[in-house]
Write a structure and sequence with these properties.
The protein is built from nine helices and twelve strands. 36% of the residues lie in helices and 20% in strands. The chain is α/β, with parallel strands linked by helices. The chain has two domains: 262 residues, 3-Layer(aba) Sandwich (Rossmann fold); 36 residues, no CATH class. It starts with a strand and ends in an 11-residue tail after the last helix.
């Protein structure tokens, strides 16, 4: 299913060098508005992704050449001479990425594992944010470890974030391939809770996950985050996961347990219905909170998908 390059299996795990190359690709899209009219985000949610605003700097006398639309008429009447209000564009919005590297992400039928795709999306988000002059931080987690990095505007912080993503990504590949699965001590909700403590106001929080294990507590924490921040969910999925074809006698493995594929032939249908229901449910839940959900497939390069989703083209595949 995957090929080898040297001693590394391409698509099964990532490297720091590969995530560094994402810096050159992190252009042609923005996680913040303004979005083109046909964009997935344009007009869908009532200014939840607020973008950068304007901060008032000073009130000063009108001088020739000033835009008359900036005249403060109340101040002009009070001071008996034309005065204008001067604004500076707010140029910073800390970006906080939450990167899932749990065993459920170790699945991929084409091009790359979900875990690798999540790493690639996180790298694109980090480099894009840094190029925009924003601080970058995040949470990287697996079943047993959760790393928190405070947002900072520096390439050093991005490199530290990428290093931790690569480390957990490669640990995941090694542990799953050697069947060393143990009872989890960290889950999706703990990662979200850690983000909510750090992103207390006016951050952009980007969750990159397959949403495995999401529940009512997930909704509660996401609500808390979205009440004071912008939030975006990148739902990583694999095409085979959406259209699995099984045969009687096959064994399905999930969270350390084996399950026999039923001989009645209804396994593929029931699996697909469950997968579709899960996806639709969480798209509905997050969108009711005005949190956009962007499905990203493992089958094609994430940067191409992001440019489509955040651009003017319509995107085929899962989600609307």
């Amino acid at each position: 299913m995957q090929v080898k390059s040297g001693s590394r299996k391409v698509g099964i795990e990532t490297t720091l060098e590969e995530l560094l190359t994402a810096k050159a690709d992190a252009r042609g899209f923005s996680f913040l508005p303004r979005q083109p009219v046909a964009s997935l985000l344009a007009g869908r949610h009532s200014s939840r992704l607020r973008g950068r605003g304007l901060a008032f700097e000073e009130l000063r006398p009108y001088t020739q050449g000033d835009d008359i639309r900036t005249i403060d008429w109340k101040a002009t009447a009070r001071l008996r001479s034309p005065h204008v209000r001067v604004y500076n564009e707010e140029r910073e919005r800390p970006v906080y990425v939450i990167v899932d590297q749990r065993p459920s992400m170790f699945f991929g039928s084409r091009r790359a594992m979900k875990s690798v795709t999540a790493a690639e999306v996180a790298a694109l988000a980090a480099w894009r944010a840094l190029a925009s002059g924003d601080r970058v931080g995040g949470v990287v987690f697996n079943n047993h470890e959760l790393i928190e990095l405070r947002p900072h505007r520096s390439q050093t912080r991005v490199l530290r974030l990428l290093h931790e993503i690569v480390r957990l990504n490669q640990e995941l590949a090694n542990s799953v391939s050697s069947l060393k699965e143990t009872e989890p001590t960290v889950d999706l909700n703990q990662a979200l809770e850690a983000a909510s403590r750090r992103a207390n106001h006016d951050h952009l929080v980007v969750l990159i996950s397959d949403l495995d294990g999401a529940n009512a507590e997930t909704q509660r924490i996401a609500t808390k985050i979205a009440s004071h921040n912008d939030m975006l969910v990148i739902g990583v999925y694999d095409p085979l996961g959406a259209a699995l074809r099984g045969q009687p006698g096959m064994i399905a493995h999930d969270r350390g347990q084996n399950f026999a594929v039923p001989a009645d032939g209804r396994f593929p249908e029931s699996f697909q219905n469950q997968f579709a229901s899960l996806l639709v449910h969480w798209q509905t839940v997050f969108r009711s909170l005005r949190i956009p959900v962007i499905p990203v497939s493992t089958a094609t390069l994430p940067v191409d998908q992001l440019r489509v989703f955040f651009g003017s083209q319509k995107t085929p595949g899962v989600g609307n």
